[in-house]
Amino acid sequence: MTTTWQPVPGLAFGGDYNPEQWPRETWDDDVRLMREAGVSIVTLGVFSWGLLEVADDAWDLGWLDEVIDLLHANGIAVDLATPTASPPIWLHHDHPEILPVNRSGLRYHQGGRLQWCPSSPVFRDYATRVATVLGRRYATHPAVRLWHVSNELGGGNRHCYCEVSSEHFRRWLEQRYGTVAALNDAWGTAFWGHRYASFDQVICPLDSETTQNPGLLLDFDRFSSDALLEHFLAEKTALREAGVTAPITTNLMVGVRPSVADYASWAPHLDVIANDHYTIAADPRRERDLGYAADRSRGLASGQPWLLMEHSPGAVNWQPRNRAKAPGELVRNSLAHIARGADGALFFQWRASLAGAEQWHSAMVPHAGTRTRIWREVCELGGILQRIGEVAGSVVAGAQAAILADDVSGWAWGHGQKPLNGFPLHSLARAWSEALTDRGVTSDVVPPEAPLSGYRLVVVPGLYLASDATAEAVAEAARGGATVLVTHLSGVVDEHSRVREGGYPGAFRDLVGAFAEEYLPLQADERVSLDTGWTATDWTESLVVTDAEVVGRYESGPLAGSPALTRREVGTGTAWYCSAGLEADSLDRLVATVLTDAGIAPDVPVAPGLEAVRRISDDHAWLFLLNHSTDPVTVDATGQDLVTATGATGHITLAAGGVAVVRER
Ligand code: GLA
């Protein structure tokens, strides 16, 4: 169970360090404070291209040498970035053709970041050159333990609609389909008579005033993800050819919403899965959002440890109302990621900027300096991470449930006109994750291609697009003894975003033994009841049961008396179908019903507001306990709490907002 990417012994702790924004004397203060807080690694150089390559092929690397040496002398490792997220002004000035073009056909201007077209050969040359220069210079520096390609690729340049991108898109389509006839067939271009006579007639889906072909839009999303991945790989190759042997990664943006790229296809190319996660201040259960993102990051890492590359010490600057974190939230957030498999917690950023676009973003060293709660909590966290460092390399203990999540499916739902426009379908997966966590059941959030054997419960929550292979894998899990739960709006379209004929949920119709004839989304303020005592909002559908037991019926609303919830025995397992958009309390009761059906008991202690996760190694088990509530909580635990260095014999009491990491006996 040991892994090889860990840049430092134990758990990594630190953040983005931008010394170029500060005078030289501040650097000495920085490393002194880093040592005080227990920082073990910093991410360096993410946005410093223009200060390293000061003009075309004119280099000023001396200051970076000095910072890296200073960090090394103080025992702090470096995660060195290729600085390509932020092209220098001179590059945009000399080569405006690298700037991306938006859907309206307008080219962006200099002054932002990630402002480059992923398909631009000009940009590719400049980006791989800076990667090569840095790779050659620092490949063997003992401080540089990890490489960080660019930053949040796709965060600012997910799609480019320029002519170079169109040409790249055409080549990509040719490779995917071989013939234009196959493309016409896949996209269903008989509709509106939009047949293509040759690949040359295809362009990026620039604004055409009305809604566009869903197959075209979906393939453009896939292409855009592949174009960004191609760019990542070009930089990674440049680093390797320059002699870099340390692990190379890039920071993903895995969350509840569909990601900016198809990360399941990126994951095999990263030496470690690294994620950035920011809580949303207005979300009253933001810890569950965090938990879902962390479980999904672990799913991309095939269950192995991953790295939290960024989160915030306090407020961010990009939400409508940027509230500071509550006391203790910083520590709980970091530990929640670690509980769910991260082998480190890094922040954006080390010292709060005084100037520039992110001057209102929190930092480990705030504007007010070290006389602050953030600083005290940063130091507290640093101490805790040292005391629990032994968990590094361990894995989250065998989850009994899997939740399927797929970016491509999310993109397909997001395009064009739908039965319930604007509905955040991805919220179903989070609702299931939240309900399972509340009931003390650990779940893995995995891509549909992941192996499903070993899970007693497989949840398919609003997986709008499902391939035949996914449908077969889910059916196989049921036949093999798992309880499968499929929700509304799953398996509706195939991989070309074409509706599956014969009734919804097409790909899972035979498995669940029921199909919907018609969709009846509810009005915004409408609520219907079921004869199980549950209530639903947003979604109902008229279900025809072909080979299943009806477990619940609609009791009110347009479908009163019709089936709403079904269960079918399949092999040694079962397949449930829930057609209704259940409200949280009702979903919780469905979860309880399905857990009983699957024979799943909680694998961690349960209490209101408690988050409990277990990590295990060959020799040990550690129970992470995080009390998100404002009341103390007492739970069963036996062993040694590494946070307070006290023993727990049978139970442990956590103060309001308190944490414990119990090495279990
Ligand atoms: C992202 C970026 C960082 C910073 C933070 C702010 O995660 O990677 O550079 O902009 O957002 O929240």
Strand content: 15-25%
Q: Please tell me the overall pLDDT.
A: 97
Number of strands: 30
Number of helices: 17
Q: C-alpha Rg, in Å? A: 26 Å
Shape: globular
Low-confidence regions? none
End-to-end Cα distance, whole Å, is: 20 Å
Quaternary structure type: single chain
Task: Give the fraction of residues assigned to helices.
Answer: 25-40%
Strand order, main sheet: write it out: 7-6-5-2-1-11-10-9-8
> How many separate domains?
4
Search tags:
single chain, alpha/beta, TIM Barrel, Rossmann fold, 17 helices
Would you write up a description of this structure?
There is one protein chain. Helix 5 (121-138) packs parallel to helix 8 (214-241), helix 6 (163-177) packs across helix 8 and helix 10 (286-300) packs across helix 14. The two termini are 20 Å apart. The longest helix is centred in the middle third of the chain and has 28 residues, at 214-241. Helix content is 30%, strand content 20%. It has 665 residues and is of the alpha/beta class. It has four domains: 13-158 and 231-271, TIM Barrel (Alpha-Beta Barrel); 275-387; 401-598, Class I glutamine amidotransferase (GATase) domain (Rossmann fold, 3-Layer(aba) Sandwich); 610-664, Immunoglobulin-like (Sandwich), CATH 2.60.40. Bound molecules: alpha-D-galactopyranose (GLA). The site of alpha-D-galactopyranose has 10 residues, from loops.
